[in-house]
Specification:
9% helix, seven-stranded mixed beta sheet, mainly beta, 3 helices, globular
Length: 306
């Protein structure tokens, strides 16, 4: 029988190479299409109101293995991209100090199990109800944040590739493995925020920027990311949205700036909003914000899949 102290030493020795992420695995190639079919983008020559058709009907998003995910970490061709992977995440026995300093700095407290090579996982943050979690002030707005929930069971997860793999959250499958359509995305309690992510096939677009009166219920602890318009994901089963002087374009209401950050080849339309761009976008429900234009819940976009 091994004494408890000896067993701890043996376990630490076995896991030490995993925690350091040693090894030189083969490099994943981003030239392979993440999807079975390609996406079309709206044609600039389309007549307003005309139905636009994508180049091909989207198929099941590419889902990588844990080892393929490991191979992407630190690869300049993949850094900044968001991918899906079936993986198992385990907690570090002794996380490095000062690696969870404040909200928006991911917490380096986990690693990819059963891979060779780089394996460090940062746990990201998500929106929390006002007054819960940690208060974060940035870019003129206040957000309340908490760490994205995770467990040690294998699953389908989203990651942003960097010098580590940043864990964005669990991804909900559709019955047929295809991306979610806007009309089919489940909506829970309108006031609740969630860890769960949905890969949604849709048109991303943004309203005009207009001068609006300050909301009545604004205060030092509220965000205006969803006030007086914003970015929206419209369904692909209807005509591509035509932006005009409206503050609510329908579909899933995501934060201001999501279009510019995540749309492929974003294009402003001379003060009249944006030209819609189709893609598979990752979103999560964040409840009903204190300052919101339109219906609840609203959604946080965290990336576009590659």
């Amino acid at each position: 029988m091994v004494a408890p102290a000896a067993a701890t030493v043996i376990l630490a020795v076995l896991l030490y190479p995993l925690l350091l992420g040693l090894g030189s695995p083969p490099t994943a190639s981003p030239t392979e299409s993440p999807f079975a079919t390609s996406y079309g983008t709206p044609s600039p020559n389309t007549t307003p109101g005309q139905t636009q058709t994508a180049a091909a009907t989207p198929s099941e998003p590419k889902v990588y293995t844990a080892q393929e995910l490991s191979d992407m970490i630190g690869d300049s061709a993949w850094i900044g991209r968001v991918v899906l992977a079936r993986a198992q995440i385990s907690p570090m026995l002794a996380p490095p100090p000062n690696r969870c300093r404040q909200p928006m700095d991911p917490c380096e407290i986990a690693f990819l199990a059963y891979v060779t090579g780089k394996n460090v996982v940062d746990i990201g943050w998500r929106d929390a109800p006002v007054g819960e979690g940690q208060r974060y002030h940035g870019l003129g707005d206040v957000r309340w944040l908490q760490l994205v929930g995770w467990d040690v069971n294998p699953g389908l997860f989203a990651f942003r590739i960097g010098e580590t793999a940043q864990y964005l959250g669990p991804v909900m499958d559709t019955p047929n493995g295809a991306p979610w359509l806007v009309k089919d995305v489940p909506i829970g309690d309108a006031n609740a925020a969630s860890d769960e992510l949905y890969a949604v096939d849709g048109w991303l677009h943004e309203t005009i920027i207009a001068e609006c009166p300050a909301p009545n219920d604004s205060g030092p602890d509220t965000s205006t990311e969803y006030w007086c318009g914003g970015s929206f994901i419209g369904g692909v089963d209807i005509a591509a949205p035509q932006v005009s002087n409206v503050f609510d374009l329908g579909g899933l209401h995501v934060q201001w700036g999501a279009y510019e950050e995540f749309a492929p080849d974003p294009s402003k339309n001379q003060g009249r909003g944006t030209e819609p761009r189709r893609g598979i976008y990752l979103v999560r429900q964040i409840g009903c914000q204190p300052v919101t234009a339109g219906e609840c819940p609203v959604w946080r976009m965290v990336g576009r899949l590659y």
